[in-house]
Amino acid sequence: GSLQPACGAAGAASMPYRTTGATLLHPLSQRLGIPLDQVNFVACQLFALLAAFWFRLYLNPSRASSGVRHAFATILGTYFAIFCFGWYSIHIFVLVMLSYGIMNMASISSIHRYSFVVAMGYLTVCHASRIYIFHYGILTTDFSGPLMIVTQKITSLAFQVHDGIGRKVEDLSSEQNQLAVKTRPSLLEYLSYHLNFMSILAGPCINYKDYIAFIEGRHVQMKLLEISWKPSENGKPLEPSPTGAVLHKLCVALVSLLLFLTFTKSFPVAYLVDNQFIDKTSFLSRLGYLYVVMQASKPKYYFAWTLADVINNAAGFGFSGVDERGCFHWDLLSNINIWNIETATSFKMYVGNWNIQTTAWLKRVCYDRAPWYPTALTFLLSAVWHGLYPGYYFTFITGIFMTLAARMIRYNFRHFFTSSKPLKMSYDVATWLVTQLSVCYTVAPFVLLAVEPTVKLYRYMPSCYKYKIKDIYQALVGML
How far apart are CA 279 and CA 441, in angstroms? Predict the structure, then answer.
């Protein structure tokens, strides 16, 4: 995800604290015992939430022009970046302006290639600085998160402009045709899309056409047209309120924050590779702790992504349509589906409901366009986009094999368990257990980051997993 792990290499906690962001809230940070960068982030997001309500009520399209809405969103987003990251925010602004230059000067046949290379190259250099200059993110003011989101937006828009102007309609998929942008954006539109206050800090990646429609007041009607919604008899345009969705997601965000402040800090990931822990605990204890640690690492992502979704919804952005019961849905920009994650019975289902907008970005710019090995290239792009920590590459390389193995097992075995409800339930329980353990095994290096603890973890885990998964496999075969 765009949020970096809180735990880094061994010894990180002993390094001195440094920040380039605003120090206004430093007394509050000390009183709460929470790092200043996290306090600044939450403060800006809470302010953004209030600004989003105001934006929807007093700068709605009936009261303010598109230019005013673009300008306000850009200025406030720029301020948030400077407040949180200080002079390091210049990297975000430089990349956006470089990419705007490419958008206007590059030929339409090459605009997507140049934008992709420049954005990913700049991001990679910044990622490298975190390892080789700041030693695994010891500089707690981490500007790479917003830079990662901006990179997604830059590359998405470049491909969509290339599709809209440089390719024939018959050569596009239905999704590419739907998202294609027919004209190059103005400077104000470009800045607003990349730097708006609703998504500058935690995303998500927004489709350009959806964002422009939102700013111009066409967002809801556009989504209703996509699902062939019939207008009301009085002819008045439908204006669904996001209040219910905002309140529900705020509750989820609050619970996630409480879990992060309590549960997460009680289960340090470094204990996974502690020599005493490894030597004196049983396999089941180690396996149970691995599962608990991976669960404990989720609340901060749940909080940040849900709060980002709330901010967009509060501004009136994120409407996705109406279901068959007539209920309005505001999940166009949702980055997670917590229920589907925790009940996933396949690796694909788990990945598809985690960091949803990044998964969609990877699909649109890589998987759907890769001439060969789309799965491997997509995992590689995901790893490079996340950063250069060795743990990321352990995770994503393992993820390739997990995905392929899960497909093969599902294809060869699932049909044996669909003949009765008890068999189907047994299959679901077994695949849920295997999926959750497989994800823990795959994702652990992502949290550990460095090579040494990752290799240490893998040194004692594979044999344990081999025997336990073998037992489950034999149990499934015995039911046939």
Answer: 19
Per the residue annotation, which of 40, 312, 353, 355 is the catalytic one? 355
Could you write out the DSSP letters of every residue in 336-382? --HHHHHT--SHHHHHHTSSHHHHHHHIIIIITT-SS-HHHHHHHHH
The catalytically annotated residue of 127, 162, 219, 386 is 386
- Diameter over CA atoms, the chain: 73
Catalytic, 91? Answer no
Say which DSSP state 329 is in: E
Nearest to 84 by CA among 130, 48, 118: 48
Q: Where are the alpha helices (DSSP H) in 59-143?
A: 66-85, 90-105, 111-132
- The reply to whether the predicted model has a pTM over 0.90 is no
pLDDT, tens only, 104-128: 999 999 999 999 999 999 999 998 8
Q: Is 102 within 8 Å of 114 (Cβ atoms)?
A: yes
Tracing tokens 């788990």 back to the chain, one arrives at 350
Q: What is the pLDDT of residues 332-389, one digit of tens each?
A: 999 999 999 999 998 889 989 999 999 999 999 999 999 999 988 998 999 999 998 8
